[in-house]
Amino acid sequence: MKFIAIAGTSAKKSYNRSLLQFMKKYFEQKAEIEIMDIADVPMFNQSDDQSNTEILQMFNDKITESDGVIIATPEYNHSIPSSLKSLIEWLSFELHPLVGKPVMVLGASRDVQGSSRAQLHLRQILDAPGVDANVMPGYEFLLGNAHKAFDENGDLNSERTIDFLEICFLRFMRFSKISNLLNEEEEFEFNPGDYEVSTLGHGGSLPMKVTFSEKRIETIEIDREGETEGLADVVFTRIPDRIIEGQTLNVDALSGASETSNAVLDGVAKAIKLAGVNPDILKRRPKPPSALKREDEEYTCDVVVVGGGGAGLSAAATALQKGANTIVIEKYPAVGGNTIRSGGPVNAANPEWQSGFEENPGERTTIEGLLATDEKLIHAEYLEDFRALKKEFEAYEEKFKGTKGHLFDSPLLHRMQTYFGGKRTDLNGNDIYGQYDLVKIMTDHALESVKWLEEIGVEYDKSIVFAPVGALWRRGHKPVKSYGTAFILALRDYVEASSGKIITDSPVKEFILEDGEIKGVIATGENGQKITIHAKKVVLASGGFGANTKMLKEYNTYWQEIDDNIRTTNSYAMTGDGILLGQSVGAALTGMGFTQMMPVSDPETGELFSGIQVPPENFVIVNTEGKRFVNEFSGRDVLTKAAIEQGGLFYLIADSEIKKTAANTSEEKLELQVAAGTLFKADTIEALAEKVGMNPESLADTIKKYNSYVDAGFDPEFHKDTFSLKVEKAPFYATPRKPAVHHTMGGLKIDTSTRVLDEKGNPIKNLYAAGEVAGGIHAGNRLGGNALTDIFTFGRIAGRTAVEEM
Amino acid sequence: MKYLAIVGTNADVSTNRMLLQFMQKHFASDVDIELCEIKALPAFYEPEGEEVPETVVELSKKIIDADGVIIATPEYDHAIPAVLKSALEWISYTSQALTDKPVLIVGASHGVLGSSRAQAHLRQILDSPELAARIMPSSEFLLGKSQEAFDYAGKLKYPDKLAELNEVFREFLLFTKITTELLAEKAVIKKDKKYTWQE
C-alpha cells in the first residue's frame, strides 16, 4: 500500500515531521510512505485561484493516486496551524482529492497534550463537505513531550509508544483497504427512455429532455427560450457535451454563468433519478477527459487577436478577408466580450437614411446650442470642422425655416458631438478632449463599418433611428436581433466559416519576445495548460478595466470617489489585461483617469437590462423624493454626477405607452420583476409613489409639470430639449437605478492605423490595439452608441494594418 | 471608545466585510469602528531572531490601541479561514496584543448556518492561553443567507437580524466597559502560565 504523509506545519524543525519520518522508516516493510512538505503551499485565497499551480497539482495527483493520507498536526492556539488549514482549503476548492480518501490523524507537541485539541478540530474540518475525507475513527495517537520522545537516530525511544503507534497504523491499513471499497463504483443500469424535467435557471424555468440507454446518457436537449443569449448559449452546449463525454456529473460550472451551469447539472441529475439511478454515483465519477487535458498546445499563425469581443472579431474577420491565417484567443468561455452586453445601436451618420425621419421637437435647439459655442473654447484642430458644420446647418434651416424638417445629421455633427461630449476637466484641473485624427477616422468611417457589418450578416431594423442614453443625437443603427448578440453571432460565424480559429477560456499572460520583438503570445488554457501562439502580428482587443476596481481607483482622476463595492455593467473579464500586456513592452497610456459610469444601471447587479429602459427622450428621472433633478437627455457623466449628488439611487418613471418604446424587455419579464420587487407598478401616479416610498403629491406634481413641458416643447426647469411621450396612461412604472462602471475611456496610445505607441510616440513593432483597450478617442466621456462605432471601425483597421505590415 | 473590526478573509468580495461596513455606519453614533484587513499579512512563519513583519507590528498596534475588537469570520470547511488563523498566530507569537482584549465574534455565510461552526472554533482559539482574549460570552451573531442580506445602500435588510445585532452590540458595549473595569484591578497580578510559544 502507498500512503501520503503530511506534516501540518511550515516550520523548519518539527516533531510532527520527525514522527512521520520515524513511521516511514519503521513501517517500511508494511507500506510505502511518502512525506510531503507544505511549506511552499500559498495562502488560500478564493479570489486568486492557484489550483493549477505545480505545487497544488502535485498534492492533488499524489493524494489521488495514494491509498490513504496520514496527517500529523501540531497545535497552535488550540487548533491546527494556518498552513495546514490553507492546504485543506485549496484541496476543497476546485480540486477535491480528499473525497472518500482514508485519512489517519495524529500529532505531536512539546506539552503533554500531544495536539489533542488540534486533532479534534482537524477531524471536524476533514468531515466538511468539499473535503469529504474518510477519517479513521478512534485510535487517537497523541505524542506529548515530543522534545523528549526521540533518540539521536530520530527513533521513538519508548517501546510502549511504538507498540501503540503500530496498532494504530495496522488498523489504518485495514481501514484504508475496506474504506477504499466504498470508492469503487456501484453497478447500475438506467431504465432506457426519454425523461422530461425542469429546473430553475437564471431567467426562470429551464425545461430539458434527457435520453438514456441502459448504460449511457445519450442526449440532453435544453429548451433555451427563457435564457439570454450569449454566455448561456455556451452553457447549454458545453455542459451537456461534457456530461455525455465523461458520462459524469462531475462537471465544472462555467465561470460567469455558474447559476445556469448548475441548473443544467441539477436537471440532468433529476432525470438520472427518474431513470432509476442514484445521481451521486455519477457525481463521484472523474471529470470528463477534455476537462483533464493538460498537455501544452502550440500554434503558428499570421495574426493573433487577443480578445473575442466586437473589436477582436472585426479585426480577425478583416485579417481573414485579407487572406491571413488568424487565431482569436479569448479569456472568457465564450466570445462576445462587452459587445454582447451592449444595448445594440451603433452610431453612424447616414443623412440619406435619417432624412426619411421627421425631426423631434427640441432637436434644432440642440444644434443651435452646440453651434453657439464660443470659438475660443474650441481646440484649433476642430475649428474648421465646426465652421463647416455651421454652414451645413444654415443650409438645412434655410430649407425648412418655420416648417417641420427631417432629422438632420452628418459626419461633421457626429464628430463635433463626440468632441464636445468628450471634452472634460478632471479633479486636478487637467483638460482632456478626443484626439482629432482618431475622432475624424471614427466619424468618417462609421457608416462604412455599419455597411461592412451588413455584408458580414448583421440585419438592421431600418424603421427606427435609435438614440441610447447619453447619445445626444438619433443616429443609432439598431440590429433586428436583440442586444449586441446580433453583431457577435454574425462575426463569430463569419470568422469560423472563413477558417479562423477561436480559442476560448484562455487568458493571455505574456508576449513571446525574441530579441525584444513581439513574436506571438502565451496564454493559460482552460485546464492550466500552456498555450503558445507564434504569430507575425498581435492585435490587442481585450477590452477595458471596468471590472477591476483596484485599477479604477488607482488611475481615477475624475470621480470624487469610486466605491469599493461599485457595480459594473461589464463582463467580469474586463480587468485591464491588455493594458498590462502593453505596458510590459513599454506602451504609453492615455487618458487613464477617465471612466464612464452608466447612470441607469440596476442598483443590485449593475445590469442594464432590468426594469424598463427606454430612449432618454421618453424617460422621466426622479429622485427618491419624487422630484426631477436633471435634464434626462444629458450626457452620461452629467447624469451620474447628478445622481451621486442625490445619493446614487433614483427612478425612471414610465407609463404604458413609454413602456412600448423599451428595447429590452417583454411583459412576462416585467411581471416577474414586479413580483420580485425590483420594479414598481401601479394604476395611478400617487399609488406608484406610495409603493416606492415617495410623497404622492410631489411625484404627481412632477409628472404634471413634465407633461406640460412636453406639450410646450420647452423645459424651463432642467432644459430637457428632446421630448416625445407624456406620462399619462396607466399602468405606471418606476424602475430603480444607480450609476455603475460602464466604460474605461483611457488605454493604450495608438495612431490612426492602430499601431501601439511607446512613450516617445514610436510604434511598437508587431503590436496593434483596438477597442476599449485603446484610449484617446472618447477622452473624458463617451457618447452612447459610440463604443460600437469605435470597435468596429478601429477593429477593422487593426486587422487590415496587421496584414498590410506583414 | 474605539473598536477595531477585523475582516476575517482575504476574498475580494465578502459579505463578512459588508457586515462590518454596515456595523461601522449603523453604530457610528455609539462608537468609532475602524475596519482592518488581513490580506497583506504574510502567511505565518516562525521568524528568525527578533524580526517581525511590519504589517504584523501595525496590526498589533491597532489592536492595542482599540478598546475592543470585533472579528467577522466566514466558514471554510467547518472552521475559520487559514488567513484569519494565520493572523491570530502572528499576534500570539509576537505581541500577544489580544490578551485581555474584549472581543465580539460575528459571522456571515451564504447558507443558512451563518458560520456557526467557524465561530465556535474561533472562540476556542481565542481562549487559548497564548491569545487569552476576553470573548463576550453567551452571545452569537450568525448571519445566514448573507448574499441577499444587504440592500444596495449596504443596509442590513432582515429586521429580525437587525434587532439581534443591535442587542448584541449594546451588550458588547457594556461588556467592554465592565471588562475594562475588572481588568484594571487585575493589572497587578502577573501571569505565571506557560504556553507553547514560550517553551
From TrEMBL, chain A:
Gene3D superfamilies: 3.40.50.360, 3.90.1010.20, FAD/NAD(P)-binding domain, Succinate dehydrogenase/fumarate reductase flavoprotein, catalytic domain
Catalytic function, reaction form: dihydrourocanate + A = urocanate + AH2
Cofactor(s) the protein requires to work: FMN; FAD
UniProt xrefs under InterPro entries: FAD-dep_OxRdtase_2_FAD-bd, FAD-oxidoreductase_2, FAD/NAD-bd_sf, Flavocytochrome_c, Flavoprotein-like_sf, FMN-bd, FMN_Rdtase-like_dom, Succ_DH/fumarate_Rdtase_cat_sf
Its EC number(s): 1.3.99.33
Co-factor binding details: Binds 1 or 2 FMN covalently per subunit.
SMART domains: FMN_bind
SUPFAM superfamilies: FAD/NAD(P)-binding domain (SSF51905), Flavoproteins (SSF52218), Succinate dehydrogenase/fumarate reductase flavoprotein, catalytic domain (SSF56425)
Domain FMN-binding: 201-275
Keywords: FAD, Flavoprotein, Oxidoreductase
Family: Belongs to the FAD-dependent oxidoreductase 2 family. FRD/SDH subfamily.
Record protein name field: Urocanate reductase
TrEMBL record, chain B:
Pfam families, sorted: FMN_red
Gene3D superfamilies: 3.40.50.360
Residue ranges constituting the NADPH-dependent FMN reductase-like domain according to the UniProt record: 1-146
Protein name as catalogued: NAD(P)H-dependent oxidoreductase
